[in-house]
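Hello again, I could really use a second opinion on something today. My current little project is about how a certain protein chain folds up. You're getting the sequence in one-letter code plus the fold written as tokens. Here's the protein in full, and shout if anything looks odd to you:
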Amino acid sequence: MNNERIGKLLDEFNTFGYTENGMHRITYTKEEKLAKEFFKKKSEELGMDVRFDSVGNVIARREGIDHSLPAIAVGSHIDTVYNGGKYDGLIGVIAGLEIIEMLEEEGIQTFHPIEVIAFTCEESSRFNFSTLGSKAMTGDLKQSDITQLKDRDNISLQEALKRQNLELENIHLAKREEKEIKAFFELHIEQGNRLIENNKTVGIVDGIAAPLRVSLTIEGKSAHSGTTSMEKRQDALLAAAELALEVEKAAVVERKQSTVATVGVMDVLPGAINIVPGLVNLKIDIRSTDVNSRNRVWKKVSDKVEQLEKHRNVKVVIEWKSEEVPVMMDKTIVHSLSELCENMNIEYMTMPSGAGHDSMNMSKRWPTGLIFIPSLDGLSHHPEEFTKLEDISTGIKLLKEVVLSYAMQCSKKEKKL
């Protein structure tokens, strides 16, 4: 393990999209493209074959003794949110490169090929659509799901793809056959405080919470703020404020199930100090590994919507609603990681993930493991996001051991080689 090399690679990647206000390596932008090309360059220097698929995922492959065997894949994403941090996602990609570097130095040849994958569009920041790259790879992406997507500058996803020399009509070509991959592993910062609070170095994720997301518009009536009496108002903002508080209240009741809910967007129109707001758009995110708990939160929120329509004389229109299914990590891999931590004297705990990851999609097709390492103060999606180099190193050591345990396993056929 070469900590200096890891730190240098982290710094080099983060030259792409760096600003004084945080990282801006947004999906399908020039900055992300440059980072992908850098990943390709570093992979090729390690002797790996590299290809871009039809949605922009980058796949670097180190061949095994038997080229026909399914690959052991590791990876994460390199895109960031707006004003993001330097560690989220990127650590998982760097970990894959460091593992290949160590195998080359140690002269270790594995039976199975090893792939390092840099997924595209994991973050939902630009198009309000997350983990696009891994959804495409697993065949869980329909063209109709993304045709109408636009960013805050009104640039469509289709146009963004064209600027990357990619075509919306070809996204289905990114789907991979089940026989191509044996297992997938991802190393990621926790993005929370549980590891630090419990004095643990590693979190072994046993399940990933999935979001229920809703975009709705509250239609009131714009009016002059000085001439409209309080009892005659149809204030969309006040209705939105009540709804936002109900979202919080409903989630707090479900805290034992680690359910959380957030109103992350509230656009108010016309947006003038002397006009009663007539229109508000809200976007709500409800997450849990317990679908029943998540649904109870949404039931209380939807009941509140009905009350607001009567009490405040507004109309509430649901523009779209998406529900993803929580997924559990492979039990055998969870057990293997636990045993490795004990053998390596690593302080660990099993835990759920409140955030979505590419592992969430990969687990639907292949046995998948997700490893967390601490993030200082639980910060993530923030310029001050930070993870100690020693913790990154520990995570990579664990990742290397589990990858090798799967890559060196051989069937009777392989033993004849």
Summary: The chain has two domains: 3-209+326-415, 210-323. The first strand starts at residue 18 and ends at 19.
